[in-house]
Design a protein that fits this description.
Blueprint lengths: L1 H10 L1 H32 L10 E7 L6 H13 L4 E6 L11 E6 L2 E10 L3 H5 L3 E4 L12 E6 H8 L8 E3 L6 E8 L14 E5 L12 E6 L7 H12 L4 E6 H44 L1 H9 L4 H27 L2 H4 L7 H31 L3 H6 L2
Parallel strand pairs: 4-9, 6-8
Antiparallel strand pairs: 1-10, 1-11, 2-10, 3-4, 5-8, 6-9, 7-8
Subcellular location: Cell membrane
Protein name: ABC transporter permease
Pfam families: FtsX, MacB_PCD
Protein backbone atom coordinates (compact mmCIF):
# COMPACT_ATOMS: atom_id res chain seq x y z
CA UNK A 1 0.00 0.00 0.00
CA UNK A 2 2.75 2.45 0.96
CA UNK A 3 4.73 1.60 -2.17
CA UNK A 4 1.64 2.24 -4.29
CA UNK A 5 1.12 5.60 -2.59
CA UNK A 6 4.73 6.57 -3.24
CA UNK A 7 4.31 5.67 -6.93
CA UNK A 8 1.14 7.76 -7.17
CA UNK A 9 2.86 10.68 -5.47
CA UNK A 10 5.84 10.41 -7.81
CA UNK A 11 3.60 10.35 -10.88
CA UNK A 12 2.35 13.79 -9.86
CA UNK A 13 5.71 14.97 -8.59
CA UNK A 14 5.52 18.53 -9.90
CA UNK A 15 2.33 19.56 -8.12
CA UNK A 16 3.10 17.38 -5.10
CA UNK A 17 6.52 19.04 -4.74
CA UNK A 18 4.81 22.42 -4.40
CA UNK A 19 2.40 21.00 -1.82
CA UNK A 20 5.30 19.53 0.17
CA UNK A 21 7.16 22.84 0.02
CA UNK A 22 4.09 24.62 1.40
CA UNK A 23 3.73 22.07 4.19
CA UNK A 24 7.45 22.30 5.05
CA UNK A 25 7.35 26.09 5.32
CA UNK A 26 4.20 25.92 7.43
CA UNK A 27 5.87 23.37 9.69
CA UNK A 28 8.86 25.67 10.24
CA UNK A 29 6.66 28.65 11.07
CA UNK A 30 4.58 26.55 13.44
CA UNK A 31 7.74 25.15 15.01
CA UNK A 32 8.99 28.68 15.74
CA UNK A 33 5.66 29.69 17.29
CA UNK A 34 5.43 26.55 19.45
CA UNK A 35 9.03 26.97 20.68
CA UNK A 36 8.35 30.62 21.52
CA UNK A 37 5.18 29.70 23.39
CA UNK A 38 6.92 26.93 25.33
CA UNK A 39 9.81 29.25 26.17
CA UNK A 40 7.39 31.93 27.39
CA UNK A 41 5.54 29.38 29.53
CA UNK A 42 8.81 28.05 30.96
CA UNK A 43 9.83 31.57 32.00
CA UNK A 44 6.37 32.37 33.34
CA UNK A 45 6.33 29.24 35.51
CA UNK A 46 9.74 30.08 37.02
CA UNK A 47 9.61 32.09 40.30
CA UNK A 48 10.34 35.80 39.96
CA UNK A 49 12.58 35.86 43.01
CA UNK A 50 10.54 38.57 44.76
CA UNK A 51 6.98 39.34 45.85
CA UNK A 52 5.28 42.28 44.13
CA UNK A 53 1.90 42.06 45.86
CA UNK A 54 0.63 44.91 48.08
CA UNK A 55 3.61 47.03 47.02
CA UNK A 56 3.75 50.58 45.70
CA UNK A 57 6.57 52.11 43.67
CA UNK A 58 7.29 55.79 44.39
CA UNK A 59 9.52 57.23 41.66
CA UNK A 60 11.26 60.55 42.32
CA UNK A 61 11.14 62.94 39.37
CA UNK A 62 13.72 65.70 39.57
CA UNK A 63 17.41 66.55 39.70
CA UNK A 64 19.37 64.84 42.47
CA UNK A 65 21.46 66.93 44.85
CA UNK A 66 23.55 65.56 47.78
CA UNK A 67 21.27 67.10 50.43
CA UNK A 68 18.31 65.20 48.99
CA UNK A 69 19.69 62.04 50.61
CA UNK A 70 18.75 63.32 54.07
CA UNK A 71 15.33 64.44 52.85
CA UNK A 72 14.72 61.01 51.34
CA UNK A 73 15.75 59.35 54.59
CA UNK A 74 13.29 61.44 56.61
CA UNK A 75 10.50 60.81 54.08
CA UNK A 76 11.04 57.05 54.39
CA UNK A 77 11.08 57.27 58.19
CA UNK A 78 7.82 59.26 58.16
CA UNK A 79 6.07 56.75 55.90
CA UNK A 80 7.15 53.85 58.13
CA UNK A 81 5.14 55.45 60.95
CA UNK A 82 1.91 55.15 58.92
CA UNK A 83 -0.24 52.29 60.32
CA UNK A 84 -0.98 50.98 56.82
CA UNK A 85 2.72 50.65 55.88
CA UNK A 86 4.66 47.47 56.65
CA UNK A 87 7.96 48.43 55.00
CA UNK A 88 9.46 51.41 53.20
CA UNK A 89 12.86 50.91 51.59
CA UNK A 90 14.96 52.33 48.79
CA UNK A 91 15.58 50.63 45.45
CA UNK A 92 17.18 52.32 42.47
CA UNK A 93 15.85 50.25 39.56
CA UNK A 94 12.21 50.00 38.47
CA UNK A 95 10.46 46.65 38.42
CA UNK A 96 8.49 45.44 35.38
CA UNK A 97 10.13 47.93 33.04
CA UNK A 98 12.94 47.68 30.51
CA UNK A 99 15.33 49.86 32.51
CA UNK A 100 18.59 48.23 33.52
CA UNK A 101 22.02 48.92 34.99
CA UNK A 102 24.98 46.67 34.34
CA UNK A 103 28.50 46.16 35.63
CA UNK A 104 31.32 43.72 34.99
CA UNK A 105 32.81 41.40 37.61
CA UNK A 106 36.27 39.96 36.98
CA UNK A 107 37.46 36.79 38.67
CA UNK A 108 40.59 34.92 37.59
CA UNK A 109 40.84 37.26 34.58
CA UNK A 110 37.40 36.12 33.43
CA UNK A 111 34.89 38.98 32.97
CA UNK A 112 31.18 38.46 33.68
CA UNK A 113 28.56 41.07 32.91
CA UNK A 114 25.52 41.23 35.17
CA UNK A 115 22.60 43.50 35.91
CA UNK A 116 22.77 45.31 39.23
CA UNK A 117 20.52 47.27 41.52
CA UNK A 118 21.19 49.40 44.58
CA UNK A 119 18.92 48.84 47.59
CA UNK A 120 18.73 49.61 51.30
CA UNK A 121 19.42 47.23 54.18
CA UNK A 122 15.87 45.91 54.64
CA UNK A 123 14.83 45.75 51.01
CA UNK A 124 15.02 41.95 50.98
CA UNK A 125 12.44 41.92 53.78
CA UNK A 126 10.11 44.22 51.86
CA UNK A 127 10.41 42.28 48.59
CA UNK A 128 10.55 38.90 50.36
CA UNK A 129 13.72 37.89 48.56
CA UNK A 130 14.94 34.52 49.86
CA UNK A 131 18.62 34.52 50.87
CA UNK A 132 19.87 30.97 50.28
CA UNK A 133 23.45 31.41 51.48
CA UNK A 134 25.28 34.01 53.53
CA UNK A 135 23.34 37.17 54.41
CA UNK A 136 21.93 40.40 53.08
CA UNK A 137 24.10 43.47 53.60
CA UNK A 138 23.56 45.54 56.71
CA UNK A 139 25.13 47.85 59.35
CA UNK A 140 27.99 45.38 59.88
CA UNK A 141 29.29 46.38 56.44
CA UNK A 142 29.58 50.06 57.36
CA UNK A 143 33.15 51.36 57.48
CA UNK A 144 34.68 48.40 55.69
CA UNK A 145 37.22 48.72 52.90
CA UNK A 146 34.80 47.07 50.51
CA UNK A 147 31.28 47.45 49.14
CA UNK A 148 29.04 44.48 50.03
CA UNK A 149 27.54 42.62 47.11
CA UNK A 150 24.69 40.10 47.01
CA UNK A 151 24.58 37.87 43.93
CA UNK A 152 21.87 35.66 42.57
CA UNK A 153 22.51 31.96 42.10
CA UNK A 154 23.25 32.16 38.35
CA UNK A 155 25.75 35.00 38.80
CA UNK A 156 27.56 33.15 41.58
CA UNK A 157 27.81 30.00 39.46
CA UNK A 158 28.99 31.85 36.38
CA UNK A 159 31.60 33.95 38.19
CA UNK A 160 32.93 31.40 40.66
CA UNK A 161 31.93 28.03 39.24
CA UNK A 162 32.16 25.37 41.94
CA UNK A 163 33.99 27.71 44.37
CA UNK A 164 32.17 29.16 47.36
CA UNK A 165 31.53 32.84 46.55
CA UNK A 166 31.06 34.03 50.13
CA UNK A 167 33.82 36.36 51.29
CA UNK A 168 35.37 36.62 47.84
CA UNK A 169 36.72 40.07 46.95
CA UNK A 170 36.26 41.33 43.40
CA UNK A 171 37.59 44.59 41.88
CA UNK A 172 35.22 47.22 40.55
CA UNK A 173 35.23 47.41 36.75
CA UNK A 174 36.86 50.88 36.94
CA UNK A 175 39.14 50.01 39.85
CA UNK A 176 37.48 52.51 42.23
CA UNK A 177 36.91 50.01 45.06
CA UNK A 178 36.45 46.33 45.77
CA UNK A 179 33.27 44.29 46.09
CA UNK A 180 32.89 41.63 48.73
CA UNK A 181 30.30 38.91 48.19
CA UNK A 182 28.28 38.56 51.40
CA UNK A 183 25.22 36.61 50.27
CA UNK A 184 23.49 34.56 47.58
CA UNK A 185 19.82 34.83 46.62
CA UNK A 186 17.61 32.85 44.28
CA UNK A 187 17.42 33.88 40.65
CA UNK A 188 15.97 37.40 40.46
CA UNK A 189 14.15 38.75 37.40
CA UNK A 190 13.71 42.50 37.61
CA UNK A 191 11.89 42.91 34.30
CA UNK A 192 9.11 40.40 35.02
CA UNK A 193 7.71 36.94 34.47
CA UNK A 194 8.76 36.68 30.81
CA UNK A 195 12.27 37.98 31.44
CA UNK A 196 14.92 35.29 30.79
CA UNK A 197 17.01 34.08 33.69
CA UNK A 198 20.27 36.01 33.96
CA UNK A 199 23.04 37.17 36.25
CA UNK A 200 22.00 39.75 38.85
CA UNK A 201 23.47 41.52 41.87
CA UNK A 202 22.53 43.99 44.62
CA UNK A 203 24.73 46.79 45.90
CA UNK A 204 24.13 48.52 49.21
CA UNK A 205 22.47 51.89 49.62
CA UNK A 206 23.23 53.62 52.93
CA UNK A 207 20.79 56.17 54.39
CA UNK A 208 22.84 59.37 54.83
CA UNK A 209 22.27 63.09 55.27
CA UNK A 210 24.42 64.00 52.27
CA UNK A 211 25.34 61.66 49.44
CA UNK A 212 26.24 61.86 45.77
CA UNK A 213 24.71 58.38 45.35
CA UNK A 214 21.42 59.03 43.65
CA UNK A 215 18.37 57.05 44.70
CA UNK A 216 15.39 57.43 42.41
CA UNK A 217 12.75 55.24 44.02
CA UNK A 218 11.11 54.22 47.28
CA UNK A 219 9.31 50.89 47.56
CA UNK A 220 6.40 50.73 50.03
CA UNK A 221 4.77 47.49 51.15
CA UNK A 222 1.25 48.01 52.45
CA UNK A 223 -0.77 45.81 54.73
CA UNK A 224 -3.27 43.65 52.79
CA UNK A 225 -6.54 45.40 52.02
CA UNK A 226 -5.16 48.94 52.25
CA UNK A 227 -7.18 51.26 49.92
CA UNK A 228 -5.52 53.35 47.22
CA UNK A 229 -6.66 56.49 49.06
CA UNK A 230 -3.52 56.16 51.20
CA UNK A 231 -1.59 57.64 48.29
CA UNK A 232 -2.91 61.11 49.19
CA UNK A 233 -1.37 60.86 52.67
CA UNK A 234 1.85 59.52 51.21
CA UNK A 235 2.07 62.41 48.77
CA UNK A 236 1.69 64.91 51.62
CA UNK A 237 4.64 63.31 53.44
CA UNK A 238 6.72 63.19 50.28
CA UNK A 239 5.99 66.82 49.33
CA UNK A 240 6.79 67.96 52.86
CA UNK A 241 10.15 66.19 52.99
CA UNK A 242 11.16 66.39 49.31
CA UNK A 243 9.82 69.72 48.05
CA UNK A 244 12.12 69.75 45.01
CA UNK A 245 10.58 66.62 43.49
CA UNK A 246 7.46 65.42 41.72
CA UNK A 247 6.35 61.85 42.28
CA UNK A 248 4.87 58.97 40.34
CA UNK A 249 3.13 56.36 42.50
CA UNK A 250 2.07 53.04 40.96
CA UNK A 251 1.04 49.59 42.12
CA UNK A 252 3.48 46.86 41.16
CA UNK A 253 0.60 44.49 40.42
CA UNK A 254 -0.76 46.98 37.86
CA UNK A 255 2.74 47.49 36.41
CA UNK A 256 3.09 43.71 36.07
CA UNK A 257 -0.22 43.43 34.20
CA UNK A 258 0.87 46.17 31.80
CA UNK A 259 4.24 44.48 31.32
CA UNK A 260 2.56 41.13 30.59
CA UNK A 261 0.25 42.65 27.98
CA UNK A 262 3.11 44.35 26.17
CA UNK A 263 5.36 41.29 26.36
CA UNK A 264 2.70 38.95 24.97
CA UNK A 265 1.90 41.11 21.93
CA UNK A 266 4.72 39.66 19.75
CA UNK A 267 3.81 36.09 20.71
CA UNK A 268 0.09 36.61 20.11
CA UNK A 269 0.80 38.34 16.78
CA UNK A 270 3.03 35.46 15.68
CA UNK A 271 0.39 32.93 16.71
CA UNK A 272 -2.29 34.79 14.74
CA UNK A 273 -0.06 34.90 11.66
CA UNK A 274 0.62 31.17 12.06
CA UNK A 275 -3.10 30.44 12.28
CA UNK A 276 -3.76 32.50 9.14
CA UNK A 277 -0.98 30.66 7.34
CA UNK A 278 -2.37 27.29 8.41
CA UNK A 279 -5.85 28.27 7.20
CA UNK A 280 -4.40 29.25 3.83
CA UNK A 281 -2.50 25.97 3.66
CA UNK A 282 -5.63 24.06 4.64
CA UNK A 283 -7.68 25.72 1.92
CA UNK A 284 -4.92 25.06 -0.60
CA UNK A 285 -4.67 21.39 0.35
CA UNK A 286 -8.44 21.00 0.27
CA UNK A 287 -8.65 22.56 -3.19
CA UNK A 288 -5.78 20.53 -4.61
CA UNK A 289 -7.15 17.25 -3.25
CA UNK A 290 -10.64 18.10 -4.47
CA UNK A 291 -9.29 18.74 -7.98
CA UNK A 292 -7.15 15.63 -7.71
CA UNK A 293 -10.17 13.45 -6.93
CA UNK A 294 -12.14 14.98 -9.81
CA UNK A 295 -9.29 14.31 -12.25
CA UNK A 296 -8.91 10.74 -11.03
CA UNK A 297 -12.56 9.77 -11.31
CA UNK A 298 -11.82 7.10 -13.93
CA UNK A 299 -8.94 5.66 -11.91
CA UNK A 300 -10.98 5.50 -8.71
CA UNK A 301 -14.01 4.08 -10.53
CA UNK A 302 -11.79 1.40 -12.07
CA UNK A 303 -10.47 0.46 -8.64
CA UNK A 304 -14.04 0.16 -7.38
CA UNK A 305 -14.93 -2.00 -10.38
CA UNK A 306 -12.14 -4.50 -9.64
CA UNK A 307 -13.20 -4.82 -6.02
CA UNK A 308 -11.72 -1.93 -4.01
CA UNK A 309 -13.78 -1.08 -0.94
CA UNK A 310 -14.86 2.41 0.09
CA UNK A 311 -12.50 2.11 3.06
CA UNK A 312 -9.63 1.31 0.69
CA UNK A 313 -10.41 4.44 -1.35
CA UNK A 314 -10.52 6.50 1.86
CA UNK A 315 -7.16 5.13 2.99
CA UNK A 316 -5.64 5.83 -0.44
CA UNK A 317 -6.71 9.48 -0.67
CA UNK A 318 -5.96 10.32 2.97
CA UNK A 319 -2.80 8.21 2.96
CA UNK A 320 -1.31 10.08 0.00
CA UNK A 321 -1.61 13.44 1.76
CA UNK A 322 -0.44 12.03 5.09
CA UNK A 323 2.57 10.45 3.37
CA UNK A 324 3.50 13.76 1.73
CA UNK A 325 3.00 15.50 5.06
CA UNK A 326 5.25 12.99 6.80
CA UNK A 327 8.03 13.57 4.25
CA UNK A 328 7.59 17.36 4.55
CA UNK A 329 7.71 17.16 8.35
CA UNK A 330 10.89 15.08 8.14
CA UNK A 331 12.51 17.72 5.94
CA UNK A 332 11.27 20.49 8.25
CA UNK A 333 12.58 18.62 11.30
CA UNK A 334 16.02 18.32 9.71
CA UNK A 335 16.06 22.06 8.99
CA UNK A 336 14.77 22.88 12.49
CA UNK A 337 17.57 20.84 14.07
CA UNK A 338 20.09 23.09 12.34
CA UNK A 339 18.76 26.22 14.08
CA UNK A 340 20.81 25.82 17.32
CA UNK A 341 24.02 25.53 15.28
CA UNK A 342 23.42 28.87 13.54
CA UNK A 343 23.33 30.79 16.84
CA UNK A 344 20.76 33.21 15.40
CA UNK A 345 18.26 32.59 18.20
CA UNK A 346 20.63 31.91 21.06
CA UNK A 347 20.96 28.59 22.82
CA UNK A 348 17.66 26.73 22.38
CA UNK A 349 17.33 24.07 25.06
CA UNK A 350 16.72 20.45 24.09
CA UNK A 351 13.30 20.21 25.76
CA UNK A 352 12.10 23.25 23.78
CA UNK A 353 13.34 21.69 20.53
CA UNK A 354 11.56 18.41 21.28
CA UNK A 355 8.37 20.20 22.30
CA UNK A 356 8.45 22.43 19.23
CA UNK A 357 8.98 19.55 16.80
CA UNK A 358 6.38 17.36 18.52
CA UNK A 359 3.77 20.13 18.62
CA UNK A 360 4.32 21.24 15.02
CA UNK A 361 4.31 17.65 13.76
CA UNK A 362 1.06 16.85 15.55
CA UNK A 363 -0.70 19.94 14.20
CA UNK A 364 0.47 19.35 10.62
CA UNK A 365 -0.61 15.67 10.62
CA UNK A 366 -4.02 16.51 12.09
CA UNK A 367 -4.43 19.35 9.58
CA UNK A 368 -3.52 17.05 6.69
CA UNK A 369 -6.00 14.41 7.83
CA UNK A 370 -8.82 16.94 8.29
CA UNK A 371 -8.15 18.41 4.85
CA UNK A 372 -8.29 14.94 3.28
CA UNK A 373 -11.63 13.92 4.83
CA UNK A 374 -13.99 15.70 2.42
CA UNK A 375 -12.09 14.85 -0.81
CA UNK A 376 -11.81 11.25 0.42
CA UNK A 377 -15.55 11.21 1.11
CA UNK A 378 -16.17 12.41 -2.47
CA UNK A 379 -13.89 9.66 -3.77
CA UNK A 380 -15.78 7.03 -1.72
CA UNK A 381 -18.99 8.00 -3.52
CA UNK A 382 -17.54 7.36 -6.98
CA UNK A 383 -18.98 4.22 -8.56
CA UNK A 384 -17.87 2.32 -11.68
CA UNK A 385 -20.84 3.83 -13.52
CA UNK A 386 -19.55 7.33 -12.70
CA UNK A 387 -16.21 6.44 -14.24
CA UNK A 388 -17.92 5.30 -17.47
CA UNK A 389 -19.83 8.57 -17.80
CA UNK A 390 -16.80 10.79 -16.90
CA UNK A 391 -15.39 12.93 -19.70
Amino acid sequence: MIRQMLVLIWNRKRINALIMLEITLSFLVLFAVVVSALYAWKKYSTPLGFDYRDTLSVVLIGQWEPHHAGQLKRAAEAMRTMPEVSWCEASHMDLFTKSYWTTVLRHNDKPTQLMVNRASDQYHQLARIPVIDGRWFGPQDTGGDYEPLVLNRRAAQKVFGSESPLGKVLPHSLGKFNYKVVGIIEDYRQHGDLDPLGEYGFRRYVWEENSDTRMRQLMVRLKPGTPRSIERDMLKILKTNLPDYDFSISELSVARESYMRKSLIPLITSAMLAVCLLLMVAMGLLGVLWQNVAQRTQEIGLRRAIGASTTGVLVQISGELLTMTAFSVAIGTFLALQVPFTGLFGNIEADLMVGGITGATSVMLVLAFVCSVYPAWLAMRITPADALHYE
